[in-house]
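Moderator note: this is an archived Q&A kept for reference. The question asked for a predicted structure of one protein chain; the sequence and the answer are reproduced below.
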Amino acid sequence: MTAMRRWTPDQIATEAASLDAVAANSHAAAVANDLLAADARLGELQRAQAAARAQIQRQHARDMRADAAALRGGVHPADLGYVD
């Protein structure tokens, strides 16, 4: 078993901020896909695909925000699967 890397508080804060930025990008992509899913000019399959992408992106944003909150709450990054 390898030893856990020691993360400094600044590194953890930076990682949390990075995760928040990823979450914001995923949320923006979900909104864009919501608009595509509502576009009557597109075919039924294209709208369904856009809706599915939006759902996946929205879940990704939630996951990234949850990880960021966990890091800020004291969870070690390795416990969330983040490695060097």
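Archived answer notes: The mean pLDDT is 94.
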